[in-house]
């Protein structure tokens, strides 16, 4: 008789963990999910994608009403009821979370609402004293916000992205640390509600993994909205002052300072692996993350990992894909699957939105690819001009010899929607000539892709 309680145990019930458990269950595996978090749902639903996009939509509505005067539409002074704005967000998230809780509790797998850690390579020890054993374990414990190593910041106090979602009132002024998606989305959200915002970015431009052209366009847009943006900085320290916090930093060789009511720590998240017992099971780390191979296997046979705890891409659709791949490879080891990053997507939901798929121009050239590139601006595109969304551009990158599309970038209106056209084209390994030949309805935002495609096709 087997000494295993389950065929597989999944640690974590967020996007990656649920995807793994669901796939294992469909494959007939006796599965347990261990999740001791205060609330079921995972980062995306509770503290990430969904609540932030709900708030951004509210800020966009306010901005649209203010901009309507250009069309002769006058609504009078626009007042924001911050309490109602946050309540609407909470209502939406409660519905999303309820759906996930129902999925986790519908009987397809056994749910243990307690914290768990690895006792050895086949054992999960629960905080209530129970021990569960299985030949396969999937680690999907997500990420957490680290305490930043900035002198004086812990003492002066700061907001995290979690804290910002629970505020009762918008701060009068805000310093945002970081230039990644989370930092920028919160910066624009609060800026559009009337908060005076300053962004402090260590690198030479925001969105370090994006095409610099795209990042530069967003920087211009944020500054036009009145946000102070400092790049290429070195933070010295933070001090508490009577009206809030003071940040001292070096910029262009000069020591500068900025004061605000609050500081938002937007410098990123780290894998949630503290106390997980990885050393007890022989699971190794790499650059602070759980080390995995292309099949989502860790360094210990039988243990897999998925999502933010292993990375390297902290986006929910990748986490889901990783969870499904881990489960598939447990069920069908003779037919292993691996993560295909050729179609890697990323979207930043600022306005204008920044989106990309595949290789950027810089990454393609760094990889030794001989590429051709073409761009087209939104300020010369009919539909975007009608919408008053004239900031930004689109860019296509193709293999020069074959014309195959290797990547696309977009900064502009509805960039997160538009980028999927290039993702589909790349999935089909289309050339620029083939994309240019496809009919596009006029006037639409999507037809903007035909212009760089035509240029690269020689037409």
Structure commentary:
With 459 residues, this protein is an alpha/beta fold. The chain folds into 3 domains: 8-145 and 270-331, FAD/NAD(P)-binding domain (3-Layer(bba) Sandwich), CATH 3.50.50.60; 153-265, 3-Layer(bba) Sandwich (FAD/NAD(P)-binding domain); 345-457, FAD/NAD-linked reductase, C-terminal dimerisation domain (Enolase-like, domain 1). The chain is 33% helix and 24% strand. The protein has 15 helices and 24 strands. It has helices at 15-26, 42-46, 49-67, 82-104, 153-156, 161-164, 181-192, 212-224, 278-281, 316-331, 361-366, 382-387, 415-427, 432-437, 450-457, and strands at residues 8-11, 31-34, 110-112, 116-120, 123-126, 131-133, 136-139, 143-144, 173-177, 196-200, 228-230, 233-241, 244-251, 254-260, 262-265, 270-271, 285-286, 289-290, 303-305, 345-348, 353-358, 371-377, 393-399, 405-412. The model has no long low-confidence stretch (mean pLDDT 95).
Topology at a glance:
Blueprint lengths: L7 E4 L3 H12 L4 E4 L7 H5 L2 H19 L14 H23 L5 E3 L3 E5 L2 E4 L4 E3 L2 E4 L3 E2 L8 H4 L4 H4 L8 E5 L3 H12 L3 E5 L11 H13 L3 E3 L2 E9 L2 E8 L2 E7 L1 E4 L4 E2 L6 H4 L3 E2 L2 E2 L12 E3 L10 H16 L13 E4 L4 E6 L2 H6 L4 E7 L4 H6 L5 E7 L5 E8 L2 H13 L4 H6 L12 H8 L2
Parallel strand pairs: 1-2, 1-7, 2-3, 7-19, 9-10, 9-15, 10-11
Antiparallel strand pairs: 4-5, 5-6, 8-16, 12-13, 13-14, 17-18, 20-21, 21-24, 22-23, 23-24
Helix pairs in contact: 1-10, 3-4, 3-7
């Amino acid at each position: 008789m087997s000494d295993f309680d389950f065929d597989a145990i999944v640690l974590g019930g967020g996007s990656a963990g649920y995807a793994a458990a669901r796939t294992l269950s469909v494959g007939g595996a006796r599965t347990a999910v261990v999740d001791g978090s205060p609330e079921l749902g995972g980062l995306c639903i509770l503290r990430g994608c969904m609540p932030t996009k709900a708030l951004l939509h509210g800020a966009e509505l306010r901005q649209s009403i203010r901009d309507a005067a250009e069309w002769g539409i006058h609504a009078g002074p626009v007042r924001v009821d911050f309490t109602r704005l946050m309540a609407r967000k909470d209502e939406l998230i409660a519905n999303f979370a309820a759906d996930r809780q129902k999925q986790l509790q519908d009987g397809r797998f056994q749910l243990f609402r307690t914290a768990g850690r690895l006792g050895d390579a086949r054992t999960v020890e629960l905080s209530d004293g129970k021990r569960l054993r299985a030949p396969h374990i999937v680690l999907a414990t997500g990420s957490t916000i680290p305490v930043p190593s900035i002198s004086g910041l812990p003492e002066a106090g700061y907001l995290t992205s979690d804290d910002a979602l629970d505020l009762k009132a918008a701060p009068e002024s805000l310093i945002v640390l970081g230039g990644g998606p989370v930092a920028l989305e919160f910066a624009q959200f609060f800026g559009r509600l009337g908060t005076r915002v300053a962004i402090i970015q260590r690198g030479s431009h925001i969105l370090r993994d994006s095409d610099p052209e795209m990042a530069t366009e967003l920087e211009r847009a944020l500054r036009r909205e009145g946000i102070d943006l400092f790049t290429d900085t070195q933070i010295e320290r933070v001090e508490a002052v009577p009206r809030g916090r003071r940040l001292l930093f070096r910029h262009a060789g000069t020591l500068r300072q900025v004061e605000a009511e609050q500081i938002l720590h937007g410098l990123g998240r780290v894998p949630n692996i503290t106390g997980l017992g990885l050393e007890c099971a022989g699971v190794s780390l790499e650059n602070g993350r759980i080390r995995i191979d292309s099949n989502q296997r860790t360094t210990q046979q039988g243990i897999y990992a998925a999502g933010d705890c292993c990375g390297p891409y902290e986006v929910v659709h990748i986490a889901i894909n990783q969870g499904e791949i881990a489960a598939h490879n447990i069920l069908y080891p003779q037919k292993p699957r691996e993560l295909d990053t050729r179609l890697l997507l990323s979207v930043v939901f600022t306005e204008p939105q920044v989106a990309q798929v595949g290789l950027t121009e810089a990454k393609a050239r760094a990889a030794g690819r001989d590429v051709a590139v073409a761009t087209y601006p939104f300020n010369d595109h009919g539909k975007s001009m009608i919408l008053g969304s004239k900031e930004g551009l689109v860019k296509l990158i193709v293999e020069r010899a074959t014309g195959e599309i290797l990547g696309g970038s977009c900064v502009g209106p509805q960039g997160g929607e538009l980028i999927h056209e290039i993702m589909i084209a790349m999935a089909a390994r289309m050339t620029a000539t083939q994309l240019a030949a496809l009919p596009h309805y006029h006037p639409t935002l999507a037809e903007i892709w035909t212009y760089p495609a035509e240029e690269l096709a020689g037409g």
